[in-house]
Amino acid sequence: MNKQHEKNKYNDPHFPFEIYRTDITGTFPEGHGFNDLHWHEELQFTLIKSGEVCIQINGEEIVLQENDGIFINSGVIHQMIAIGTGSSYHSITFPQSFLGFFSNSRLEINYVNPYTEQLVLPYIILTSNVTWQKNALTNLWEIEKIYLDTSEQKVAWQYQIATLIVQTWLTIIQSLEFITKKGISQKSYLHFERIQTMLRFIHENYAESISLADIAQSASISSSECTRTFKKFTHTTPYKYLINYRIKRSLDLLLMATSPISEIALNVGFNQTSHFIKEFKKQFGYPPKQYKDFY
């Protein structure tokens, strides 16, 4: 499975809705969390429960404070890149079919697809300082309360959530004249497609011996253009991104397996154990054999 193009899992396939809760210790239910670049087809509203969080969206860094929120559109590359001690956030995810009621409806054609396709509206920041944004946040916090406070879930709570989601979307599209458009040009959209292709290539082949030329070839561009595109969207080079991703994929193996470090290193693409240990220590400050002691 492509670890980066996220396919969210839902407890109830007949009600595809989830709230992922993340703090410095991890994400529950299991999903993409802190410092984990990804994108997904679902729409997402993230609420900052406490502290301060920095999110990177299509290469742009945005700092959000406690009680702020942000809408992240379908297909947008994003990751939380900084979260303070004691900080936490909740991410509400659902398919855009929630908003159109049924496929190819007039609602979907007129009021959903025009704003969820071709990255015309990658994200919208929500604060309580603006009336319409405050109204949207009020709905979102109510959704969180209904879903997470199971002791008080009432009859037809799913209807309550679906209705509040639609109300929130209506608030947004009625306020579009006040929203600064963040849409991208056709040229930028081409770069966006390229970075998705190259990221997908890395995530499918990280365990193999792959080079900068291989990554560039996956998107049919030169090595120099590959490097420029990576720096624009991820603020790092293709090589560093590959190394960091290999380290991330090693973490579960270190926790779950009894395999020697040398075998784990090979399984995630490091030909030399010493290289794996060096890069691991660079990220965490201690060798991989100690990782299990901390977690």
Automatic annotation (TrEMBL):
PROSITE patterns named in the record: HTH_ARAC_FAMILY_1 (PS00041), HTH_ARAC_FAMILY_2 (PS01124)
Residue ranges occupied by any HTH araC/xylS-type domain in the UniProt entry: 196-294
CDD domains for this protein: cupin_XRE_C
Keyword annotations from UniProtKB, A to Z: DNA-binding, Transcription, Transcription regulation
A Pfam family the protein falls into: AraC_binding
One GO MF term: DNA-binding transcription factor activity
Listed PANTHER family: ARAC-FAMILY TRANSCRIPTIONAL REGULATOR, HTH-TYPE TRANSCRIPTIONAL ACTIVATOR RHAS
Protein name as it appears in the record: HTH araC/xylS-type domain-containing protein
Organism: Enterococcus saccharolyticus subsp. saccharolyticus ATCC 43076
